[in-house]
Amino acid sequence: MNDSLDATMGQRIRKHRELAGLSLREVAKAARISPAFLSDVELGRRFPTNEKLARIAQKIRASADDLKKHDHRSALADLKRLAEGSPGLGSAIRTLVHQVQAGSLTPEQLAVKLRKAGDTK
User: Fold this and answer.
1) What is the pLDDT of residue 75?
2) Alpha carbon of 94 to those of 7, 80, 100: distances in Å?
3) Has domain 9-68 been given CATH number 2.40.170.10?
């Protein structure tokens, strides 16, 4: 499976489901959710509770914790709040976004830089 950093939780659920050879209806039934809800999860329009995610993960033979790592909603909200509270941080974030958009910095390179910065503390 492609472990791309930009894969969303929904995309990963769908990929695991397809690799397991399971239909959307089969997974939804096992997880006790509607097929429409699971479809919305896979498309990133809705997000399951921890309990529903655990049932989905069990059926598709994936780790719920691994799937949660690809739910970036709270991280983005936190980052926005931090940027709004600090003009310097907001400027730094905009610079990083521009570098990624321009192709001069890949998401993977950014992740490495952030890990290295965290290791110096």
Assistant:
1) 73
2) 22, 11, 10
3) no
